[in-house]
Amino acid sequence: MGRVVVEVMPKPEILDPQGKAVVGALPRLGFTQFTGARQGKRFELEVEGAVTPEVLAAAREAAETLLSNPIIEDVVRVADASEETA
Question: Per the UniProt entry, what are the Gene Ontology biological process annotations, in alphabetical order (predicted)?
Answer without folding.
Answer: 'de novo' IMP biosynthetic process
